[in-house]
Write a structure and sequence with these properties.
Elements: E1 5-11, H1 17-23, H2 27-39, E2 43-50, E3 54-61, H3 65-79, H4 86-91, E4 93-96, H5 98-108, H6 120-134, H7 140-159, H8 169-181, E5 188-192, H9 196-207, E6 212-216, H10 220-229, E7 233-235, H11 240-246, E8 249-252, H12 263-272, E9 278-282, E10 299-302, H13 304-342, H14 346-373, H15 378-406, H16 409-423, H17 452-466
Parallel strand pairs: 5-6, 5-8, 6-7, 8-9, 9-10
Antiparallel strand pairs: 1-3, 1-4, 2-3
């Protein structure tokens, strides 16, 4: 049986990106690291996850978990040329046993993420586990732990509100667009400018099902590059009015010092659209859209402050849901801890089952041979089966009975308690020793009456006296 689980690593909680990137591993390096760890005397099973927000090794020790964690800490620092670096030493943490199990479950459930409830970490964990399993670096304990961690993550996302609502400005556009249009399938998006946040928002909308993404920018080259990145099409800046008329959602981030989406322009656009709903997400600072645009009929205008308010409200909701998620994690971790502890007695249970099976099969075979060899009446067959049951019971109980009877006072009490617990028996008060059966005394003889026994004894004394010399 392998030793307990342990975790060694650092994350956004303990290390800035400058430290995290020093310890990060490329995908092609991971298999070699797992081989090196398992080649040593401390680590039986291992997997490594390396993302922008965390670098962690989940392992099962061959012996003591603290010793294994120390060896992994040293190996991590040495492998990246950071041995003796105080910043890395301070940033690295380790957990062992029950604390390690809870940490793995919390990571999978996105309770330890920079953005609580984000879905990306679960996919990253599954990928990391797949690499380790393919390399043969995982076994029964780590495999079962990650399997349960994935189940915990599913429970948390299904049973709580932790993943509800966008948690960053670039993705909140999808949530707001859903409020305006409902189903986004078949809708078109116009990206005005080539800012990073507008690019991310466009990608989120694409995944949400929008049909077309059009990019326009004062620089045609930048528009082309951005369109290639987000699987869209580039259009000339001088066609902005026509593009606005055709779009359902506009995401704007130009970096201009004055509004490019003015009230006069949007007034003409809404008229041409016959006041069909138009959603404008203005991510730029300074703003691209004149605030007065939001007063036009059919126009839904959201600026960066609006987006951040939605994000803040969503994160507050996730924080509340995290409390419920934490209870699920605690319950599931306790269940897994119980399973892990039970593995230490599995060999004993297996030996007990094998012993019982051998005894039962041997006696059953004897009875089968008897039934085949002799012509028996139905009553005799019934008696043979009952005798089989009694023989099996006698043989199985022989050693326990002997141990209980021959144990000293202290050990006898412990054996009795263990026996009652193992077999679910109710304590029974010891029986008092049986008193000897009372015998009535003989009745005194009646006056003048001589019993046969008395008469015999009297005759014998008289005869003896007559035979004595000198007795006359």
């Amino acid at each position: 049986m392998s030793g307990p689980l342990f975790v060694v690593g650092l994350s956004w909680r303990t290390a800035p990106v400058a430290i995290r990137e020093k310890l990060a591993f490329r995908e092609e390096e991971i298999a070699g690291v797992l081989d090196e760890l398992r080649a040593g005397p401390e680590v039986a099973e291992a997997m490594l996850i390396s993302t922008c927000n965390r670098v962690e090794i989940y392992g099962v020790a061959k012996g003591d978990a603290i010793d294994a964690a120390g060896a992994v800490r040293a190996h991590l620092a040495k492998s990246r040329g950071l041995h003796g670096d105080p910043q890395v030493a301070d940033a690295l943490y380790h957990h062992a046993g029950d604390a390690a199990i809870r940490h793995v479950f919390r990571v999978a459930a996105a309770l330890d993420s920079l953005v609580v409830g984000e879905a990306q970490i679960l996919g990253q964990l599954k990928d990391a586990f797949g690499v380790a399993a393919k390399r043969g670096a995982t076994g029964a304990v780590l495999g079962r732990c990650l399997e349960r961690a994935f189940g915990v993550a599913k429970r948390v996302r299904t049973e709580t509100q932790i993943a509800r609502g966008a948690a960053n400005v670039s993705s909140v556009a999808v949530e707001l667009a859903g409020r305006v249009f409902g189903d986004l399938t078949g809708k078109s998006v116009l990206v005005v400018g080539a800012g990073k946040m507008s690019t991310l928002a466009a990608r989120h909308l694409r995944r949400a099902g929008v049909d077309e993404i059009v990019v326009t920018n004062r620089s045609p080259e930048r528009a082309e590059r951005l369109a290639d990145e987000i699987d869209g099409v580039a259009r000339p800046w001088d066609r902005l009015e026509d593009l606005l008329i055709a779009a359902d959602v506009v995401i704007s981030s130009t970096g201009a010092t004055e509004p490019v989406l003015t009230r006069p322009l949007l007034k003409k656009v809404t008229k041409a659209r016959r006041w069909r709903s138009l959603m404008i997400v203005d991510i730029a600072v300074p703003r691209d859209a004149d605030p007065a645009v939001g007063e036009l009929e059919g126009v839904y205008l959201f600026d960066i402050d609006d987006l951040e308010k939605v994000v803040a409200a969503n994160l507050a909701g996730r924080a509340r849901a995290a409390e419920d998620a934490g209870k699920i994690v605690d319950h599931e971790a306790a269940q897994f801890e119980q399973w892990l502890r039970s593995q230490h007695v599995v060999p004993t249970i297996r030996a007990l089952r094998e012993h019982f099976t051998r005894v039962a099969e041997a006696e059953a075979q004897k009875t089968i041979d008897t039934l085949h060899r002799k012509e028996l009446t139905p009553e005799q067959r019934d008696e043979a089966v009952r005798r089989l049951a009694q023989l099996v019971v006698n043989k199985l109980l022989h050693r326990p009975q002997t141990a209980l009877k021959e144990a000293g006072p202290g050990s006898a009490e412990r054996l009795v308690e263990s026996t009652l617990e193992l077999f679910g028996l109710e304590p029974v008060a010891p029986e008092a020793p049986e008193a000897p059966e009372a015998v009535d005394p003989p009745a005194p003889p009646e006056p003048g009456a001589v019993s046969e026994a008395g008469e015999g004894r009297a005759g014998a004394r008289k005869a003896a006296a007559n035979d004595t010399p000198g007795a006359r």
